[in-house]
Structures are given as structure tokens and as C-alpha cells.
Amino acid sequence: MLEMRPDCERCGTDFPADEAGAFICSFECTFCAQCAEKADDRCPNCGGELMDRPARVDDLLERHPASTVRRFKRPQ
Questions:
Q1: Distance between CA atoms of residues 13 and 33, nearest Å
Q2: How many Å apart are CA 22 and CA 68, to the nearest integer?
Q3: What InterPro entries does the entry give (predicted)?
């Protein structure tokens, strides 16, 4: 089951699990459309292909909530 990470790892954009707009690789690295496009649809972490992440809706989201662990790290 997908972890449904809550944010873009590169810029911190929020992604509700029940909405489109997130892109993931096979390791579930998660990026917004702008960051995925800048990376030429290749994961900056592993080089894998970035694909549209499906949304999780209604009772499925209630039974299987999205992750709340944020991956974006502000530059020091």
C-alpha cells in the first residue's frame, strides 16, 4: 500500500492524499508537478521514473490514512 507522503521532497508543497498533483517513483519519493518537470520526470533521489500518484478517497482514506511524516528539509 502506498505511504501517501504529505509533501514535495524538494520544495515542501503540501499534497492532500485525496487530490491529484503528486508524482512518485517506485520508492515512493514524492514531488510536485513543477519539481518533477524540472527533474525531467526522473527521481532526483534514485533516478527512477516519476509517475502520477493516484488519489486515495472516501472510506479508503479513513481506513488507511496517509502518512503525516514530512520529507522536505529546509536548506540550512
A1: 10
A2: 15
A3: DUF1272
**In 12-57, which residue ranges form alpha helices assigned H by DSSP?**
33-38
Task: Report the predicted TM-score, pTM, of the whole model to 2 decimal places.
Answer: 0.87
The reply to whether 67 falls in a domain is no
Q: pLDDT of 32-58, one tens digit each?
A: 999 999 999 999 999 999 999 999 998
Q: Among 38, 11, 15, 36, which Cα is nearest to 25's?
A: 36
CATH number reported for the structural domain that contains residue 1 in this entry = 3.30.40
Among 40, 43, 13, CA closest to 28:
43
Three-class SS state of 24:
strand
Distance, CA of 52 to CA of 38 (rounded, Å):
15
Domain residue limits at 53: 1-62
Return d(Cα 52, Cα 55) in angstroms, integer. Answer: 9
